[in-house]
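=== RUN LOG ===
request id: a7f3
mode: sequence -> structure
chains: 1
length: 90
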Amino acid sequence: MLKKLSTTNLIQQYSEIINELKERGVIRTKNLIGDLGEYLAIDYYCNTAGLPKLQAAMTNTKKFDAISMDGETYSIKSITGRLTGVFYGL
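=== RESULT ===
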């Protein structure tokens, strides 16, 4: 379906999708990949039996991105690109 759209229409659709994700609270900052990763991780935890139910931390919170109902904090990291499998440090 997307291949049938003109480039201009495709860009317009992208803009509309980004705006909708902002309205839904999925995109909360200027870090698109980070926000998408946090949303997907929190959604997975909340919808998987046996895992803690998480909620997103306030956007200005330092050192963690989500918190469980028990008060445990979680740091969620998202990246793009190809992974080489090489670790450069923790």
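=== NOTES ===
The longest strand covers residues 54-56.
The chain is about 35% helix and 10% strand.
=== END ===
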